[in-house]
Write a structure and sequence with these properties.
This protein is α+β, with helices and mostly antiparallel strands. The protein has two helices and nine strands. It folds into two domains: 36 residues, no CATH class; 80 residues, no CATH class. The radius of gyration is 28 Å and the shape is elongated.
Length: 142
């Protein structure tokens, strides 16, 4: 009788083991699993609720012009320059911009140089916020 009970317990434990998880959704384009998305050779995996990894390499990252146009912002507002006016830099081999004064009107944007940045090029934009700090001193806000 003991061996029969033991056999039933073992069978019960074996039945409770999770089987290999298949896709939740699958199409010709991609497959969705509980912890990952697979599209061809590419996959994104959720290692935790706050940590994702992916082996995807975007071909777009090879086509960023060396001409960068941008605008600085405070509190996610378009409050530095008038609409349609942006700062610009033609990024060469340096990895740091000259100091750009917040709110200073830029010169006209030049033509794009026709060359592209290397993939994962690290670059630091430097900004002088003294006009903003002066406004804080004078008015208490910007």
């Amino acid at each position: 009788m003991k061996w029969y009970t033991l056999l039933l317990l073992l069978l019960g434990f074996a039945a409770c083991q999770p089987e290999k998880q298949g896709p939740i959704y699958q199409s010709d384009a991609f497959a969705l699993y509980p912890d990952k998305v697979v599209q061809g050779d590419n996959q994104a995996v959720a290692l935790s609720p706050t940590h994702l990894t992916s082996n995807y390499k975007s071909p777009a990252s090879e086509n960023y012009s060396r001409l960068a146009t941008f605008k600085f912002s405070i509190n996610e507002k378009d409050n530095e320059l008038p609409p349609g006016q942006n700062h610009w830099l033609v990024i060469g081999e340096e990895h740091e911009s000259p100091v750009i004064k917040f709110g200073e009107q830029p010169e006209a944007t030049p033509e794009a140089p026709g060359t592209f940045l290397p993939v994962n090029y690290e670059y630091t934009f430097r900004v002088d916020l003294s006009p903003v700090l002066e406004q804080f001193e004078e008015k208490g806000y910007y």
